[in-house]
């Protein structure tokens, strides 16, 4: 039987790098994205058009996009850039971006902290971006940040997230991503919210974004998978985590997610050996990327070329 497909979007070059104390050059960022592409990754969030004062690490995303276009040129890769406001959208499209990620918020507190708007102001800016993108033929992922828990306001009502998701799907977003921005969700919450979303809107346009702050990242991926979600964000080598915000850590590591999915019999299209090379590069470039929780085991397998054991232990029923 053909293995069922799960799509991964590596957000390390954006979500991971934005909080690093070491600012990477556009050339280094291009090298990291290229290593991901070499592993078979087909969706990468490569940067953000945000204020360079607010997020110095994302300055030069226009150069990253231009360099990648030159290197790859192939049509089957989606390079997404984050746009926090309409100005960001204008800068992104002027730089040739064909896929953007806009941000919605579960709370006023997070919207204020991130973009100096309240939740509804951010939503109306997002609507404007979506409308313009539909006219421009630009692909849009609408991400609901702090969809489970907010560092300022605590627990977020699932009904608020479902309603917002419904509005943006109706308005024509290509993808709706539910993000546990601070890694506060547990698998029970994830299972129930994603089940409600899949019930209401189907799974094909919904994706999930988890952080591993409380070591529940992979369990949360599994919970969403059980609800039928088949697209996930993850970050190479678990890159992320702000040294100035104790308690917040990086996204669930791409290599851990790929390993789990492949071992369960899903097809990710990603070569783990090569992905481990991208993880090593992420560690070298940043000096802080922790690597996935299974990195010692994965490194051992990669070095002794035993990754075949992974596919051998696949559940044959999928
Ligand atoms: N990219 C680059 N510059 C931008 C911008 C964007 N998306 N949006 C606004 N600016 C510029 C303005 O043009 C203005 O420039 P000027 O001083 O030369 O006229 C300056 O930034 C200040 O604009 P203002 O509207 O007052 O914004 P602000 O200072 O309140 O900052 C954001 C607002 C959204 C630009 C800033 O908070 C930001 O970049 N946040 C993103 C945070 C982030 O990336 N979080 C993680 C991902 S969710
Ligand atoms: Zn994130």
Q: SSE layout and pairings?
A:
Elements: E1 7-10, H1 12-16, H2 26-38, E2 43-48, H3 61-71, E3 78-83, H4 86-94, E4 99-105, H5 108-115, H6 119-136, E5 139-145, E6 149-150, E7 154-155, H7 158-170, E8 175-180, H8 187-201, E9 206-210, H9 217-227, E10 231-234, H10 254-264, H11 272-286, H12 295-303, H13 308-312
Parallel strand pairs: 1-2, 1-10, 2-3, 3-4, 4-5, 5-8, 8-9, 9-10
Antiparallel strand pairs: 6-7
Helix pairs in contact: 2-3, 2-11, 7-8, 8-9, 10-11
Residues 15, 179, 181, 209, 211, 251 line the site of zinc ion.
Describe the structure.
With 318 residues, the protein is an alpha/beta fold. It has a single domain (7-292), classed as Aldolase class I (TIM Barrel, Alpha-Beta Barrel), CATH 3.20.20. It is built from 13 helices and 10 strands. The strands form 2 sheets. The protein has an 8-stranded parallel beta barrel, surrounded by 9 helices. A two-stranded antiparallel sheet has the order 6-7. Helix 8 links the parallel strand 8 and strand 9 (206-210). The mean pLDDT is 93. The chain binds coenzyme A and zinc ion (ZN). Residues 15, 179, 181, 209, 211, 251 line the site of zinc ion.
* Ligand inventory: coenzyme A, zinc ion
Structure class: alpha/beta
Which architecture name does CATH use? Alpha-Beta Barrel
The outline comes out as: globular
Largest sheet: 8 strands, parallel, barrel
Strand order of the largest sheet: 1-2-3-4-5-8-9-10
**Contiguous helical run count:** 13
Here the CATH topology equals: TIM Barrel
Mean pLDDT: 93
Distance between the ends = 7 Å
- Poorly predicted regions are none
Rg result: 18 Å
- Mind telling me the CATH class? Alpha Beta
Work out the number of β strands. 10
CATH superfamily: Aldolase class I
Number of domains: 1
């Amino acid at each position: 039987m053909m293995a069922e497909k799960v799509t991964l979007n590596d957000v390390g070059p954006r979500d991971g790098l934005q909080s690093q104390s070491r600012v990477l050059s556009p050339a280094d960022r291009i090298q990291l994205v290229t290593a991901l592409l070499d592993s078979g990754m087909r969706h990468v969030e490569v940067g953000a058009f945000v204020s360079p004062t607010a997020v110095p690490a994302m300055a030069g995303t226009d150069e990253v996009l231009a360099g990648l276009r030159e290197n790859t040129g192939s049509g089957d890769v989606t390079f997404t850039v984050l746009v926090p406001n309409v100005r960001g959208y204008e800068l992104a499209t002027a730089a040739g971006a064909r896929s953007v990620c806009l941000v919605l918020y579960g709370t006023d507190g997070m919207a204020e902290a991130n973009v100096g708007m309240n939740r509804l102001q951010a939503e109306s800016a997002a609507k404007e971006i979506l409308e313009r993108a539909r006219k421009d033929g630009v692909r849009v992922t609408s991400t609901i940040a702090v969809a489970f828990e907010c560092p300022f306001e605590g627990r977020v009502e699932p009904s608020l997230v479902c309603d917002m998701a419904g509005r943006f799907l109706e308005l024509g977003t290509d993808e709706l991503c539910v993000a546990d921005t601070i890694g506060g969700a547990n698998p029970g919450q994830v299972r129930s919210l994603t089940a409600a979303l899949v019930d209401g809107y189907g799974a094909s346009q919904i994706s999930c974004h988890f952080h591993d702050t409380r070591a529940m990242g992979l369990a949360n991926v599994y919970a969403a998978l059980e609800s039928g979600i088949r697209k996930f964000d993850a970050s190479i080598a678990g890159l992320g985590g702000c040294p100035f915000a104790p308690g917040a850590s990086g996204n669930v590591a791409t290599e851990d997610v790929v390993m789990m999915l492949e071992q369960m019999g899903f097809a990710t299209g990603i070569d783990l050996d090569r992905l481990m090379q991208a993880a090593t590069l992420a560690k070298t470039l940043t000096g802080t990327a922790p690597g996935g929780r299974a990195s010692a085991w994965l490194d051992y397998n990669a070095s002794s070329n035993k990754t075949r054991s992974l596919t051998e232990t696949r559940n044959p029923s999928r």
